[in-house]
Amino acid sequence: MSISEMLDPWRHAKSLEEYQSEMRTNRRNSLTDNFTPPTIGRRAWNMCKSLPHSPITWMFLITLGCLSALLGSLMDYWIFTIVSLRQRMILDLGEDSLASYLVWVVWTVVCGVLASSCGYFISTNSDGSGIPQMKALLAGQLGSSNVLSYATLVARCTGTVLSNASGLSVGKEGPFLHIVSIMADKLSSLAIFRPTADNFTYIRAGVACGVTAVFGSPLGGVLFSIEVTSQYYAIKNLWQSVISSSVCVLTFQIISVLQNDVLFTNTKFADFELGWELLGFLLLGVLSGVLAATFVKCVQWLHGMKIALLERLARPLVQRYLHVAVACAVTGVLAYPCHLLRWTDRVIVNDMFKDVPLANLTSIEQSTTFSPHLYLLLYLGFKFAITLVPCGLPLSCGIFTPLFTYGAVVGRLYGELLVVLVSPTVSPATYAVVGAACFASAATHTVSTAVIVFELTGQLSHMLPVMLSVLVAYSIGGMSSPSIYDVFAKIAGLNFVCADITDSVLAHKMAHEMMRPVPQVLTMHSTYADAVALLQGAVRRVDLLLVLSRLAERVTANAGSIEDDDANSTSTSMLHATPGPIGLEEAAELLLHDKALGRQTIQFGPPYDVLSYTALPINTYPPQVGYFVALSNVSARRTSVDGCDAQ
Description:
mainly alpha; transmembrane helix; Clc chloride channel; voltage-gated chloride channel activity
């Protein structure tokens, strides 16, 4: 007897009774194997995954929060190391020498070109802010194969570090949001996390984590991520974003304590009393809204001018590098003469939020050429220009941090003028806080910047003026110009992100964009949802039970009205064949069980044991109804078996 005949009961069985006996033995052995400790542990693990608030989901959110904080701290360390190297070179050459000026400009150009090279040679999806790409992805308007790839992750990390260390007036909130989203997608593809929830749920948690890791603001980061990346948001996913953001902030605080460093210093202001100052805060909101709208309009105009000039060049690679090199050179030339622009945005914001005299600030006390007020005014002019230049560059960079810094300086200068012109008891630092929130809110069309300011400063005494001023600035910015992120989306060719989904997406959506590949092979990690995709035309067991239940109700209701004996006997047979009427609670329980089962991995067991697969002819194979059953196959097999029995 060959090995195949020994393993196949159908080939060596002498009779149908012997075959059925061996099949029962195989099934009995399979049932015994299903109660082994590994099998029980695997089933318990899958059952744990199917819970509404699964511990596996909590494990994922905690892991994501810790990793995002660690990566954010690591990137900050890399940026600090590169910037420190440049600073040492300038100090060795002398800060006021021509050689140090050239080193600053060349450093800016080289780092900018290298950052742009990451987007060209590694992944083109790493160019730009990253927020428009994530908004398009979460809206279902952009595929995730390239946007969330490992190549994009490497290009984003490298390009963001180089662009922030180059001296350009850029931030890292948008790129880091994209980076953490890629991390969330790759973590969710692991076998331990994969079947627990929809992948986009994890990506949304990653978006919130990315914003939180930059600002150190858990609630403000969650709200900001919703405003800038979501057209529609499921509230049921909010708790996951809050948990991951809270863990991220906790990890970030632990790292800051170990490094003896803080992201932003807490402020202490006097309590706000309702009076004439409220009008001053509202006027600051108007001023910030007008300046922010002017900035966005200038970005649109400058990008149009750059496109008109670059179109004269034939080769796209030359256009790309020339665009970056010229922008970096202009930034280096404008930034170095103003000593205040050599400081990072983080230092500037912390200084503007300090309630001390302007001349005593760390970033201003080294300047003796101009008065502090004139120095801040010059800084605003240069900062506006060098923040405008990088907008639209083909490299990985953000925009929120420079906008926040610019608003803080505008508010500080506004408060200093009120001290001179109106009352010496005014606190200019409070106006710096309000100005930062107003300018960023008007440019990005978000109101969550107010919450970010509350959490950054740890100050709630000025909640009323901050909220009212932000609403005024937001209204003026919304009426006067589009959001800066919508402008970036148009620059990146994602115009449909800015429009209403009913007007643009539904009119241009193609069927192939919504199609997903159907798995051809079921593995140990496949879920029942994967098996459903293979069963075209099959009837699910829960649907079959509900249909038979309705049939039983109709047969029972019409039992007394049927006069034909044959019809009456047929209905009686149907009534005995059905499971009986199913109540609403039982039907709901069946549907919930069916939904939970779709997320579980397939448990291979009888009659799907390895030894049970035979070359049994379909005409004599006993009908077997599993979880999914194709009614046409069942009826055909039942007819064939009945025919064999009749013979």
